Amino acid sequence: MRGMRSMSSSDLSLPSRPHRTLVSPHQRHSISIKLNLNWALHVGRGKEWKALQDSFQRVQKKGAASEACIVSGLSGIGKTHFCRQLKRDMMESKETPRGFFGEGKFDQYQQLSDPFAAVVEAFSDICSQILKDLERREEISKNIQASLGSRTDVRLAMKLIPPLAEIFGNNTISVDGPVLGKSMTIQRQTDREERPQPSGGHDETLVRQQPVSASHTMALFRSLLKGIASSSCYVILFLDDVQWSDMASRELVHAILSDSTIQNVLLLAARRDSERTQQNPSSSNLPTMIPENKKEANYISLHNLSESQVTALLVSLFECHPSHQSNERVQPLSKLILKKTGGNIFYIVQLLEFLQQQHLLFYDTLDNEWTWDLAAITLKANASENVVQFLTQVIENNLPGEVRAALAMASCLGFVFHVKVLTLALQMTEDSASFFAEHATTSTDNCETSMLCQRLQDSLRYASEEGLIESVSKDGSVFKWSHDKLLECCYSNMAERQDIELLHLQIGRAMHQKLLLEEAQDDSFLFLTVAQMNRGSARIDRGSARIDQTSHERIDLVELNLRAGEKARSLSAFQTASEYLAIARRLVIEDDWKNEFVLTLELYTMSAETEFSCGNYDTLKDLLDQIESHGQTIEDKMRAWYLRVAMLGQSSPREGSKEACRVLGLLGQPMPFRPSVFRLGYEFFQVRAMVNNCNEDDLLNLPTMEGKKDRVIMKLLQFVDYFGRMDENESLMTLSHLRQMQHTLKNGMSDGAGATYAVWGIVKGMFGDVDGAYRFGQLATTVADNWEESQGAIPKAYASVYTCINHMKEPLAHSVDPLLMAYRAGLESGEAYHGGCCMSAYMGVYITMGLPIGPLLGDMEKFIGQLQEGGQGQLVRFIRPMNEFARILAGKQSSPLIIDETDLPVYRSTDSIWLIYLQYIQNDIWEARNTLRRVMKTTKEPLFDVIYMSYHLRIVSALICYGIYRLKPKRKYIRMASKFKKWFRTKAQKGDINVPGMLQLVEAEEAATLQHSTTDQTRKIFDQAIQSLRQGSFTAFAAIANERAGDAMARFNDPFWRDNYYRSARLLYKEWGATTKAEEMKAKLGNEESSALTQSHVLTVRGRSRFDAVNIENSLEGTFVSEMQID
After folding, report:
1. Smallest Cα–Cα separation from 722: which of 904, 860, 864?
2. Orc1-like AAA ATPase domain: which residues (predicted)?
């Protein structure tokens, strides 16, 4: 029945597809009449095709933003082939740039199998095209690796998408340096509550952090796109049947479309509509895929053909001359076809094929035209209610029995199926003999098995030649159905004849046996096995324990779903994992808490961890109650307690702190929520005595913390630290620092040991022991760097060391690279919170140093997206004032930085620190004074004394005091400024190499304000401060120093040096990226810019010594004179 070729996917195509042949059986071998389906799929779709072409053209433009185009319609309407035409146009066009078209399809029958499977399929398709592009392959390979940004990410990407290994070959480049914005770029989860992920590393006693976090997995896919896509190499990502997509894939699509750095990418999605949803193209699961900034996605709806369109289609197919006479001749057949097919193009084609096979439609060689027997067709059509029955009859009446049997079984395996799995299903199901009568067997005899495989290969080859299925692998080991409707037809036919649930269970049993024999190690095989058994789970008796075969099988299925859920978690597909675990819980009965306690406890605990990751807190509460109710020991309940602490802390850090203190009491570590000064002093001296009994080698070689209970206690102490900081409960936070150190010294090291040494260093720094603080900071980084079990130790330690300790003895600039490295380690290890802390500190240090704001703005956007993706809303909130500060200075934001008085105190304090800095730079001196008063009341001492932000807070505070004094001369402002000056002097005496320039600036401003010095003496102090600040790489402070010096010279009535300092300030503000300040300096200069000085003028003007001029030139590192000459 060769007419079945019409069901090939290539047949339902748009223009440029080869013509196909429909002939009378009498003329089958003598003539070739082509049935042209090209024009058919264009009937009535010119407007829709133009809309798709417009999207295609837009994404090819240089710098074009990513775009989404959603093609929807009823089943069989031609959505897939409509979209595929874009690929054919790409291949044939000689005018448009060359791009890549990757296609992946979601499977209705395997929605829980292989999370990201369709996306991986699409990327693999793109990789296969890159491999064939010899001209650009090497360049794209380098771009991808550079975009991924590290060897670790390159390896992970190759694991996710194996064809990448072929692209990279032996040319994997060195990509060790962590560069923000080069790879890790995440966005999304506006629908997910903001939450810090609990820090678990790889500790099985706690909330499990997977080797690759959700944000990291999505970042890899997005980095791949950025490495491939460009204006000369656009990418079309075609995802078919998105109505069957899993949650993980939808979130990934959302992340891709949300990333503004991904350009020249068209996300093309085909979605099957029901009659109910067809009128609302933005319904269904699309809202979870399309971000807010892409809500105007291009929605294209395809509809069934009308009677006139069906008539025009038949005229075209039969190659009639389009005329009124032709229309009248075809119209009766057209009406009949429309009645039976509803105008569905797939059904129309199948019906025409059916009529030809029944000899009711044939080519008349005498009249040289197509003809048909309308009366017979009418009679035949009335025998079945619709075209689906026609299609069923075609398969039943025209295919050999073995082919029908193979296809029927294949329909139970999904849209894509493996020959080995199909063989296993046919070989080991109970009624396999009915499929391959004389060849099928349940025996394992190699000869009979070989015969079965050969017969199956022959059947699949026959079906492929008939256009029912297509091979999707070179070796013919994997096939897919040519169309969903063919799969549905075979499956519905199978369901009518078989106990379909029992059949799925039998297939699952066969696959499970293979898993038990460890013959199948592929993760996809596990997912397929679980999917089959779940579809037959209704046939499994809910027995009470492993007392009979069915009860044993129920427990086995619980274990399989638990295993699949754990694997899905490792792929960051938390929603898919949640569904597997929910199925497992539905199989559990109350007696399992007694008879299968270990399995049931693990199931509920992993379910709780997964629901926490998904943000499903209502379900989480019920699960935690179950665990606490049935848990028999403290060890059974520890993970649940930990999760409850994390959950409560989301809405209220104070409640989280209280719960953590309660749980610590249950674990034998009573922790007062409001510890007294006496308690802190007692514990401090206790810890100090323990530390003094250890030398450096002892501290570096403590044993590893082994006890599960001890590790839980350490994690809870870290939670107390975090929530105490959020609640500004400094006494509780300090006690947690002391307890962490005490616990480590008593019980050994955990992955938080480096952070523990760091917080002890912070405590010593708070008490003025700078040398001791620095020593423990170095110990902390050494322990973290050498911690072999997980990279998660690095961000935990580095977040504290390079925020509060390292700058006590080293240049602040030395903190930049370590913080970036720690951020990367946090993403790769799943320590999203501590990694985010490192990046937050990096950005703060970056701005404090006065490094270029321009690149930082892009990095901030990416980083904020990554934090939102990982549920780190608290850190996003910390970064917000830094982001607005930078945007306002760069002229990218006009709205002011506003403090929300309803926010947590810690947020208000952070906002105020950045607001006072901004107000001072903008010369809003009175508002800066008001903000300073609030800061002095809310900023906690002495903890804040050790944080890097204390630099710009205190230097700006001192300058504000002098500025206010000049406007309102009261001695209290001088006294306040003197306190800040004293702080800088004390820091300098203790070895802080960052503060000399800041101290000199404060002294220069004091001299200029009180006018105790001459003009030249004041200028000399400013010059020394500028030189010192520039040598310390404090560009922002150096710019401020030049502006203050210019103002001072203006008060001294010295226009020459006033303008020189303003020019230097303008140069440095431009270098910093503070364009608003650079423009302000330009306005201050006015027309004086044209009076650029020559070198001789600088050396001789007004009798000033060469010493002064050289010092100014040196202080700007050779840029001062050149800037004046340029101006």
Report:
1. 904
2. 43-267
